Amino acid sequence: MGTEFRKLVWKFLLEIPYGKTTTYGEISKKVAKVKNIEKMSAQAIGGAVGHNPISIIIPCHRVIGADGRLTGYAGGIEIKKKLLELERNV
């Protein structure tokens, strides 16, 4: 279904609480720590997030850019925005 790297990233996606967001950079720090390396590219994290095959279950819509902007989502940015708004209002 996915490489070990992607599965590791998806595991961190599952840890993002409902109604909360995190950044690609924050996930990259967690992955680097697990892999015992100095740093990991946020772009590499973005690639793994983008290959999430079950995005409604593994909440990739909760990952945003470092500057708070909504970035990349397979369903489109408007859907990502609506999902985040729904979670914040429930």
Features:
90 residues, Arc Repressor Mutant, subunit A, mainly alpha, globular, single chain
CATH superfamily membership: Winged helix-like DNA-binding domain superfamily/Winged helix DNA-binding domain
Please state the CA-atom Rg, rounded to the nearest Å.
Answer: 12 Å
Oligomer: single chain
* CATH architecture annotation name: Orthogonal Bundle
Which topology does CATH recognise?
Arc Repressor Mutant, subunit A
**What class do helices, strands and sheet pairing give?**
mainly alpha
| Spatial strand arrangement across the major sheet | 1-2
The DSSP helix count reads 4
Tally of individual domains? 1
How many strands, which pairing sense, and closed or not: the largest β-sheet? 2 strands, parallel
Q: What is the count of β-strands? A: 2
CATH class value: Mainly Alpha
Give average pLDDT, whole number.
Answer: 92
Account of the protein in words:
This protein is mainly alpha-helical. The chain has a single domain, classed as Orthogonal Bundle (Arc Repressor Mutant, subunit A). 50% of the residues lie in helices and 4% in strands. The protein contains 4 helices and 2 strands. The longest helix is centred in the C-terminal third of the chain and has 13 residues, at 77-89. The chain is globular.
Topology:
Layout: H1 4-14, E1 22-23, H2 24-35, H3 42-50, E2 63-64, H4 77-89
Parallel strand pairs: 1-2
